[in-house]
Design goal:
With 160 residues, this protein is α/β, with parallel strands linked by helices. The protein is built from 4 helices and 6 strands. The chain has a 6-stranded mixed β-sheet with strand order 1-2-3-4-5-6. The protein starts with 9 loop residues before the first helix and ends with a helix. The C terminus is likely disordered.
Length: 160
């Protein structure tokens, strides 16, 4: 549970808790709030996806923006992980997509968009796209967990 501290609004705290719960329940990832990255930058959330054997597979960063001026505040936008997400309220989804395309024209596709509703539900509007070595592993591992051996083999042939 993330609690209000300092400059955070109630809306920011609600969005942080929604995003934290989303990654915990859907992917089993415990995101850490405001932890410094190796490059010294501090995103809103960061975490690591493990392969089930305590081996880190890829890193995740989530930046939360609650209103349009927040995009230009000079805080955040640390998209330096394997999987990068921008979490925004429903009314800012279109703005966030346009902002990424304009401000990061060569890298916009590397950032996924999470929509956080007023009821604290999180919807993955856009997945970050990378090579097969990137964020695909999270989705692929969840897909494979539910498939039989024969189907798993076909998927491996298709994406390898």
């Amino acid at each position: 549970m993330i609690y209000k501290k300092g400059h955070k609004t109630n809306r920011t705290v609600m969005m942080e808790n929604a995003v934290h719960n989303h990654f915990s329940k859907k992917y089993g990832i415990d995101l850490r709030a405001e932890q410094s990255l190796p490059n010294g930058k501090i995103p809103d959330f960061s975490g690591t996806f493990f392969d089930g054997k305590d081996t880190p597979v890829e890193t995740i960063v989530v930046e939360i923006k609650q209103d349009a001026p927040d995009f230009f505040s000079g805080c955040g936008l640390n998209f330096e992980a394997d999987c990068n997400y921008l979490a925004v309220p429903t009314e800012l989804v279109g703005f966030a997509i346009a902002f990424l395309r304009e401000e990061f024209p060569l890298d916009a596709y590397k950032v996924g968009i999470l929509e956080v509703t007023n009821t604290a539900e999180v919807r993955e509007v856009l997945y970050p796209r990378r090579s097969m070595n990137g964020c695909w592993r999270i989705r692929r591992s969840r897909i494979l967990a539910g498939l039989s051996g024969e189907c798993r083999h076909l998927l491996d042939m298709e994406v390898s």
